[in-house]
């Protein structure tokens, strides 16, 4: 099943690492460590092979892909040997990267994206194209009447106003081009009633939001533990220090607030109450493409005995995120091939703020994901429950 992976933000760290990783897996130069879909519980015939993935994308930046890969190798994110071995392949992908669309209206820009997606699909004779948003985090948009009604949205996009945030404009274009959409960011994307209705009308699956790669991943394991042991969490405070482009973006207060909101949902929805404390995100340029999170949890046990727990997570965000991008592209392509429609709630395992998912517990999400994969490999169709 030849599958296009169209990356919005294609020259960024996560996208570049995903491309290098996908090419390395295809060439047999690296193993699939970190790729969940290569575990026995998920691997199977419904998923497109790594050799069947074809990469393209949009970006505002113009730095050549190979230069971005070299910078990531210098930073210790990817091995230099892979950059050296894959220069020709990276050059081929470079030819499939397009500048951000231009046009007088958002409708014009959406149509430009549709042309790029359609041309990419036809040029490579692809069975389908999955659009994955890995661009910078956006502030939450101001509500607009057109966000709720597909007909009003179409009319508004022909006007002079910026009705949709960029992530949602790409989501809209993906739907017009009959492409499933995955949002790996906390941006709005397809999370507007009008866009969800259009995706339903087009019979498309979609997934998101905000890839779960570090501190929130640990929270989704620990919070259920406290709940199941009936331990009362009094406070849970976290500090996240990160560099790189994501850190620079999150130095903006509005983007920072959108990210924090996504990260905090797991506690209230898992514990059944919101403990004191919060999450703070700070940009530390010196950290580059790495991030450190420190969390302090205070809790009480039997007879009110007070206790505490601390953990520190230090990781490379791009190396943690990239295999999940490949996983999501493969799973979403398989869901589309099987006739799945609407939010893929069973992919909540991958996200901080998952669409339609009934739980934030990683264990429960894993059980739903493996059942979903079995359904796909058994030849499942659109009757599978996507809404939880």
UniProtKB/TrEMBL annotation:
Which species is listed as the source? Micromonospora arida
One of this protein's Pfam families, by short name? NAD_binding_5
Domain named Myo-inositol-1-phosphate synthase GAPDH-like is located at 214-318
Per its UniProt record, what Gene3D superfamilies does this chain match?
Dihydrodipicolinate Reductase, domain 2 (3.30.360.10), NAD(P)-binding Rossmann-like Domain (3.40.50.720)
User: What name does UniProt use for this protein?
Assistant: Myo-inositol-1-phosphate synthase
A single GO molecular function term of this UniProt record: inositol-3-phosphate synthase activity
A GO biological process held by the record: inositol biosynthetic process
Q: Which domain of life is it from?
A: Bacteria
Q: Which family does it belong to?
A: Belongs to the myo-inositol 1-phosphate synthase family.
Organism phylogeny: Bacteria, Bacillati, Actinomycetota, Actinomycetes, Micromonosporales
